[in-house]
Amino acid sequence: MIRKLSIANYRSIRDLVLSLDQLNVVTGTNGSGKSNLYRALRLVSQTAHGSAVSVIAREGGLSSILWAGPQQFSRDVKSGRHPVEGTVRSNRINLRLGFSCDEFSYAIDYGISTQQPGSSMFFRDPEIKREVLWRGSDLWHSSRAVMDRKRPAVRTRNDEGQMEVVLKNLSPNDSVLGSLIDPLKHPELYQLREEVRSWRFYDHFRIDANSPLRQPQVGSFAAVLSNEGSNLPSAWQTICEIGDANRLHEHLEDAFPGSNVSIEDSEGLFALRMHQHGLLRGLGQAELSDGTLRYLFWLVALHTPRPPSLMVLNEPETSIHADLLPALARLIVASSEKMQIWVITHSDILVESLTEANECNHIRLEKDLGETLIEGEGLFNRAAWRWPTR
User: Fold this and answer.
1) At what angle do helices 232-242 and 290-302 cross, to 10 degrees?
2) Is residue 60 helix, strand or coil?
C-alpha cells in the first residue's frame, strides 16, 4: 500500500506530500488541482511502463507541465502586501515524483534535455536525472539505497551489501522501472515495478450510442475490465466463473433490487442483458440508461478477480442518480478490503457515504496563489519527505 505520495513542480502542484490510507477520497472546488493530482499519479504508473517521457513530450515537453509560479512565496506576497513577481531561479529545473510503501520508497527526478534545438528534433523530451529505490522511511538516505541511478549510470546493492555499477549507459529517456529487470538478481526492483504496473485508472469512459460499452463484443476471458469497458460482458462472465459471483450479485441487488444480469453468446459475440423487476424482457446494453450502464461498469471494475495494488476512480458519480450513490459508496468501501482505492469526486453525497467508513482518508484540496494545497495543512502538520539530490 502507498503510504505517502510526493509531487514537486507539476502543473499547479509546487510541493505536495499526501499521507494515504487503504481508502482515500480527494475533493476540492473546480480548479483546485484534483485532475493534476490524478495525472501526476498516472505519470508514476507510466514511468513503470516506460511511457512517461513520451507522455510528457506529447504534452509539449517539460516546460509545458512544470509549476509556472515562483519557487517560493514570501510572507508579503501571501499576505497580499506585495504582488507575485518572477525572480532569478536558484534551483534546478525539475519535475519530481515519489512514493513510499510499507517496505520501500521510490523517487524519480525529470529534468530538461541536454539536446539543443537544431542538434536534435527530440529536444523537448525530458531526461531522467536521478532515480532511486530505498528501503524503509520516506526520508531518503544513501545507506538504505537498493538502486541508485544518476544520469546514465545505475548502481544496485549486491549480496555483500555494497553498491555496484550494473549499467553504465542507460538512456536518459528510459527509467530503471521501465527497463528489463532480472527478478532473480533484483527482486525488490522487480516486485515494485510489477506492483506499480498493476495500478488501474478509470475515468471518463464513453456511454454514447457508439460507445464500446453499448456494443456486443467478441467473447474472451477477461480478468481485468478495460479502461473503455469494451469487454464488459466478458469481464462479467469471468467474475461469475472464477471470481466472487455471490458478492457481485449482492451488490447488484443492493443498487437494483430484484434485478439480475445474464450474458448471451451469439456465435462468439457476448452481449450483456439486464433483467429488472416488473419488465417482461431484459434490456440490452444499447437500451440501458447512462447511469445504469455506468453502475454496471463500476460493479465489474471493483469485483475484478485480479485486484491491483491500487485502483483510482475519477468522478465515478458521473451520470449516476443521487439515490444510487450510497450503494456505490458501499460497493467501494467493500472493495477497498482487497485493494487500495482512490476516489476523486465532486459529489457531497458520495463523500458523506464514503467517510462514514472509519478507514476512509478524506483529502480536501484548495488553491492559493495558483498553488494546490491540502486544506488545513500548515508548517507543523505537513507530512515529512526528503528528496534525493542530483
Assistant:
1) 40
2) coil
In whole angstroms, give the CA distance from residue 174 to residue 156.
17
Identity of the amino acid at 137: S
CA–CA dist 313, 301 (Å, integer): 10
Question: Given the DSSP bridges, would you call strands 4-10 and 310-314 parallel, antiparallel or unpaired?
Answer: unpaired
pLDDT digits (tens, 9 = 90+) for 317-375: 999 999 999 999 999 999 999 999 999 999 999 999 999 987 899 999 999 999 999 99
Sheet containing strand 23-28, edge to edge, reads 200-202, 310-314, 340-344, 23-28, 360-368, 371-374
* Contact call for residues 361 and 25 (beta carbons, < 8 A): yes
The β-bridge partners of 145 are 134
Handedness of CA 152, 158, 164, 169 (dihedral sign): negative
- Amino acid 28: pLDDT: 96
The radius of gyration of the chain from alpha carbons, rounded to an integer in Å, stands at 23
pLDDT in tens, 42-76: 999 999 999 998 898 888 888 889 998 776 655 54
Can you give the pLDDT at residue 280?
A: 81
Which set of grid coordinates corresponds to residue 36? 493534476
Separation between Cα atoms, residue 309 and residue 41, nearest integer Å = 14
The cell 458501499 sits on which residue?
330
Give the residues of the chain that fall short of pLDDT 70: 71-91
Q: Name the residue among 233, 302, 292, 316 with its Cα closest to residue 268.
A: 233
Q: Cβ-count burial of 259 within 10 angstroms (0-12 exposed, 13-18 middle, 19+ buried)?
A: middle
Q: What is the model's pTM?
A: 0.91
Q: Which of 300, 177, 194 is nearest to 239 (CA)?
A: 300
Q: How many CA atoms lie within 13 A of 208 on its CB side?
A: 3
Q: Which residues pair with 117 in a beta bridge?
A: 120
CA–CA separation, 329 vs 336, rounded Å? 11
40 phi and psi angles, rounded to 5 deg: -65, -45
User: Distance (Å, rounded) from C-alpha 155 to C-alpha 209?
Assistant: 53
> What's the distance, CA 323 to chain centroid?
28
Interacting residues of 355 by C-beta distance below 8 A, sequence separation 6+: 25, 362
Half-sphere exposure of 206 (CA within 13 A, CB side): 11
